[in-house]
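Re: weekly structure request thread

Next one in the queue (142 aa):
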Amino acid sequence: MAKIKKVKKIIRLNLPAGTATPAPPVGPILGQAGINMMDFIKQYNDRTQDKRGQIIPAELTVYQDSSFTFELKLPPVSAMIKQVLKLKSGSQKPGVDSAGSITKAQIKEIAQKKLPDLNTNDLEAAMRCVEGSAKSMGIDII
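Done, posted below.
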């Protein structure tokens, strides 16, 4: 029977795909957790090589024996919106200045992609989450 490892800590990191480095704040966070940061960064970069240019969150589980596992998540909703609309950033003054507009079909497409990472199985609720992110970025919904 396999021995079950005790979880010491769970760390959530948003890192650039394929190009993560041990520079702060990543290095100190991994160092405090007591894991081999270069080992993690090499594995992360290898697994995200095909997604360069995106921010890919990783949920890192650190065990008592300093070993670790990690799971990759989908990019944040705001990053997905910027990618679909080909924007560099949202509005500097949401509610005053518009950064662009997004259609209900685009919102539905983003919500369907992001659904596995959200704490709901309801597509309508996921769409409202995406709409809220779009509004907070100063993007008009049409």
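Helices lie at 26-33, 37-48, 77-85, 104-114, 123-136. The first helix runs from residue 26 to 33.
Next request, please.
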